[in-house]
Design goal:
The structure holds two protein chains of two kinds.
Chain A lengths: L4 H9 L7 E4 L3 H5 L10 E4 L3 E4 L22 E7 L2 H9 L5 E5 L2 E3 L4 E2 L2 E2 L3 E2 L5 H7 L3 E5 L10 E2 L12 E6 L2 E5 L5 E6 L5 H7 L4 E2 L11
Parallel strand pairs in A: 1-2, 1-5, 5-10, 6-11, 10-12, 14-15
Antiparallel strand pairs in A: 2-3, 3-4, 6-7, 8-9, 12-13, 13-14
Chain B lengths: L8 H4 L8 E4 L9 H10 L4 E4 L11 H5 L3 E6 L6 H8 L4 E4 L2 H13 L3 E4 L13 E4 L2 E7 L3 E12 L4 E2 L8 H6 L1 E12 L18 E4 L14
Parallel strand pairs in B: 1-2, 1-8, 2-3, 3-4, 8-10, 10-11
Antiparallel strand pairs in B: 5-7, 6-7, 8-9
Classes of the chains: A alpha/beta, B alpha/beta.
């Protein structure tokens, strides 16, 4: 069966390693924070100007001057730092962030990503997404494999306005895990529990590479 | 002796005129100059170009100036969650320029630092790259981006002194320090205003040289856009 958004977040949490600086986008990526193993330490970066983001506050600890990039009230962990937004993007542009996890509406087999605009429908702005995808060394995407009406979102080329070119390294969808190869193509690495290779082939419009036996993913 | 204090918000904004370009500090509703925004609404000046990461929400922040149609153009990175904004954008009443957040922050920083332009990789290969100069550094294409300056910058700080020095709190810092440097006239509103000498110079975020006028805000609602608790 395909994963729900919590399942995708749980699987992605396994990619987070001890000592990492991590930027989480809005949506499924935000959920990843809930599943990071307690025996490792990571520093979550929030691009408005916070490194070392902690849990949401309890009701009596809410501070309107402490929010994350999704404008949610947050706390800090030991070792946290606060800074201005220009300095925040200095960290991002200079490649100091070890792992960036973003949501996407479409990803192409070349690693292009579209996640900021639907012409005529949604004009909210790109926020920090274009800066992140242009500079982060290690970008992985959390997304639904197909739209509600069954159209593939893992495409040959993106149909929506791009956020960035050739930047996505790995895709975690509700159906599986995929490397995006430097020469182009989605290389199937793992299947979601109970999902067949055949189902993944059917749901993928872009070039899909299937080599050997594809293991089922393990979700703790 | 340098004393940048004004007593009242109306005195702080006295020369802001129709058609002015104004930077507003803040990220979402966090760290926004609430008192100046309310006073600008009351003053009723129009055709403003506003540079701000966001456009407030319906009924608060820059949403107040949108409701009264005082804003002609918004320069922002993210403008979701604001119905009035969306309505005016779709009807063509409001002109909007969307800029990647890091590029926006750096363009303002450059404006305040006397750097007319710089190259950044953000937005290469996307529609925002249209007609921008591209140059390859280290094998990677970058876009030429120009500084941003404004007739007025309005920032909100936690503490300030009569010499104009500012200290910000938490993530309410955000765009405020860069904007403070990039206005021809910079107006700072603060929660606590003390005589020069009372703030530790080691802890100043924005040196007073960048601030033209400073005043203590009467009231801070600090509305929370997205209250999330355990």
């Amino acid at each position: 069966m395909a994963l729900d958004k919590y399942g995708i977040a749980k699987r992605i949490a396994q990619e987070v390693k001890d000592g990492y600086y991590v930027n989480l986008g809005i949506g499924i990526p935000t959920l990843v924070a809930n599943y990071i193993p307690s025996d490792i330490q990571v520093m979550l970066q929030s691009e408005n100007g916070l490194l070392g983001m902690g849990a949401f506050p309890t009701k009596d600890k809410v501070d309107p001057d402490m929010i994350n990039a999704g404008k949610q009230t947050v706390t800090t962990i030991d070792g946290a730092a606060l800074f201005n937004s220009a300095e925040s993007f200095a960290m991002i542009r200079s490649g100091k962030i070890d792992l960036t996890i973003l949501g996407a509406m479409e990803v192409s087999e070349q690693g292009d990503i579209a996640n900021w605009k639907i012409p005529g429908k949604m004009v909210k702005g790109m926020g920090g997404a274009m800066d992140l995808v242009a500079s982060a060394r290690n970008i992985i995407v959390a997304m639904q494999h197909t739209s509600k009406d069954g159209q593939s979102k893992l495409l040959k080329t993106c149909s929506l306005p791009l956020t960035g070119l050739h930047c996505v390294k790995k895709v975690f969808s509700d159906l599986g895990v995929f490397d995006i190869l430097p020469e182009g193509g989605f290389k199937l690495l793992e299947r979601a529990p109970g999902v067949s290779v055949e189902e993944i082939i059917q749901a993928t419009e872009g070039k899909l590479i299937v080599e050997g036996i594809i293991p089922e993913m393990i979700i703790h | 002796m340098i004393n940048k204090t004004v007593q009242h918000v109306d005195e702080a904004i006295r020369d802001i005129h129709d058609g002015a370009t104004i930077m507003f500090g803040g990220f979402g509703l966090c760290g926004i100059p609430e008192n100046c925004i309310a006073a600008l609404q009351k003053k009723g000046i129009k055709n403003l170009t506003c540079i701000s990461n966001n456009a407030g929400v319906d009924g608060f922040g820059l949403g107040l100036l949108l409701a009264t149609r005082q804003i002609k153009k918004m320069i922002s990175s993210y403008v979701g969650e604001n119905h009035e904004f969306e309505k005016q954008l779709l009807s063509g009443e409001l002109d909007v320029e969307l800029i990647p957040q890091g590029t926006l922050a750096e363009r303002i920083r450059a404006g305040g630092a006397g750097i007319p332009a710089f190259y950044t990789p953000a937005g290469y290969g996307t529609e925002i790259a249209n007609e921008k100069e591209v140059r390859v550094f280290d094998g990677k294409p970058h876009l030429l981006e120009h500084w941003l300056r404004a007739d007025f910058s309005i920032v909100k700080a936690w503490k300030g002194d009569t010499a104009g020095n500012l200290i910000f709190k938490g993530t309410a810092r955000n765009f405020n320090p860069m904007m403070a440097t990039a206005g021809n006239i910079t107006i700072a509103e603060v929660e606590e205003l003390v005589p020069a000498g009372e703030l530790d110079p080691n802890e100043i975020h924005t040196p007073g040289i960048f601030v033209t006028r400073i005043f203590k805000g009467n009231h801070y609602e600090k509305r929370i856009e997205n209250l999330t608790t355990l």
